[in-house]
Specification:
Blueprint (H helix, E strand, L loop, with lengths): L10 E4 L3 H13 L3 E7 L6 H5 L2 E6 L10 H10 L4 E3 L9 H9 L3 E2 L4 H8 L1 H11 L14 H11 L3 E5 L9 E3 L5 H16 L4 E5 L5 E9 L5 E8 L3 E2 L2 E2 L1 E4 L6 H17 L4 E9 L5 E7 L6 H8 L3 H9 L16 E8 L1 E2 L5 E2 L2 E2 L2 E3 L6 E5 L6 E2 L6 E9 L2 H14 L1 E3 L5 H8 L2 H4 L7 H7 L14 H19 L11 H12 L5
Parallel strand pairs: 1-2, 1-4, 2-3, 4-5
Antiparallel strand pairs: 6-7, 6-8, 9-10, 9-14, 11-12, 13-16, 14-15, 16-23, 17-18, 19-22, 20-24, 21-23
This protein binds ligand MV4.
Amino acid sequence: MATTPRKRIRKVLIANRGEIAVRILRGLREMGIRGAVIYSEPDRLGLPVLLADEAYPIGPAPSRESYLRGEAIVELAVRIGADAIHPGYGFLSERAGFARLCRDAGITFIGPSPEAIDAMGSKVESRRLMIAAGVPVVPGGKDPLPDLDAAAAAAEEIGYPVMLKAAAGGGGKGMRMIPSAAELPSSYRAARSEAAASFGDDAVYLEKYIENPRHVEIQVMGDLHGKVVSLGERECSLQRRHQKVVEEAPSPVVDSDLRRRMGEAAVKAASAVGYSNAGTCEFLLSPDGNFFFLEMNTRLQVEHPVTELVTGIDLVQAQVRVAEGEPLGPEFDDVQPRGHAVEVRLYAEDPWRGFAPSPGKIEMLRWPDGPGVRVDAGVYEGSEVSIYYDPMLAKLIVWAADRERALNRLERALSELRVEGIRTTVPLFRALLADPDFRSGNLDIGMLDRKLAAGELKAPIDDALEDLPLIAAALAHHERAYQTAAGPANGTPARRSRWAGTARYEARRNASWT
Ligand code: MV4
């Protein structure tokens, strides 16, 4: 029998910060692998530094001078004797050039090959590859449009409404919905100049506009021996300006047949570019049940924990094992979701003031726990939340036997959570949990924006009321102390404090403080 080539990884340098650096450290420590982190100046007291086996300064706050210094990071990995680099998400994670630097230095990049990253990097290029591989993509053109006349002809053929997209793009930049022929000329010019400004390439192409779709994505995992598997879907429709807010697995509308078909499409997509390691295929799922490949994210995603909770697979550890050359075993075959998981992203933003950033010191912090609750945090009580990086503080993830119970559990967990000193998106989640459309799983990619614009999402209770039990208890304590010292001395018991009753009543009434 042929032996599998497996290069044991003993030390990993994590080229990231915040909660994902902490998440990766946890995965490594359970495998007996040393975890080293880099940190920028404002991150010197960050949670990753406190938890890592080794920590190295990488530069000042701006990412370009710290977390994006690819060459310095690879040099550091070599110097400290790391076998591999885990890029996390964002920063250098989807830069083929960085994966190449690692390869050239003999460092294992924990992610796909530079060739696979490149192949999925360009929209028209990956679209062409997907069409050739038989992966369903949104109906539309394959090539960039040379001029307005070509755009008008293509739009007529596809049928309005259409969507103009940047060929080099991704993430929604340079994208324009065009309801009818009248709007085409101005949108065409605007899309081209926006594409030029964002990507240095003004090429655009056309697709059929899919109305009220869901954003459903498939987690894939590939090994270095050509095996690629699907680990099921995540429902990510609840987003604001391409920033996901809530994610769940499984999707409330994906049944086992659709899951199998979307999984097969995702495996085809990944296999077409020789994909290995963790990746995500994004699809639009239209209300009539058709699905269309959008793009592939060639990294571990923020929302990976919901997949971990319903599959029982540790995705970070699986990434390390496949990077070592270990083949995906039978436990990766025909993986089906068990129960239901929901994740909410806690941002240091005020949802009632246009999601204004809310940096500052976390004066008080109490995470929820108990059955089925997971917190992936990058901060602790006393942390300073700076303005330099993504404002996501933590992810709260719950698991339960079904969706209804998972949402009840999330509500319970949020009632235990306290963050003082900065504003967070927590009240938005409370409002969403009280929303009938969210509760029933009736979601699409425009839902959150529509409800926010219509003022339909409101804080269910005034935040200030949360402190009532605390205030009542303090007053009760004060009054009791006062009466003990100066109360009637003739043997009659002191009159019972009105505040004591209030404190007990409030504590019972408001589960957020007990
Ligand atoms: C679309 C679409 C509707 N029809 N394409 C936005 C980001 C980019 N990755 C693709 N996007 C979209 N492409 C067609 N033909 C709607 C979106 C879209 C979207 C997609 C996924 C998640 C959130 C979104 C929010 C707005 C628009």
